[in-house]
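User: I would dearly like some help making sense of a protein record. This is the protein in question:
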Amino acid sequence: MVHAAKLLAEKQISIANISYESGFNNFSHFNKLFKEFTGKSASEYRKELKSVFK
């Protein structure tokens, strides 16, 4: 999850690709675990980062 969060912050690739690069074969499982880990979905997480670093 930490690796996925780092990729979301640093790369402009799709969230699906980030999930696969982070070792997940199932995108919905990745989304569920990411939300449990961070308290928000991967897209919400990326959106918040963009608003902070504008």
Q: What stands out?
A: DSSP finds four helices and no strands in the chain. The CA atoms of residues 14 and 22 lie 12 Å apart. The mean pLDDT is 93.
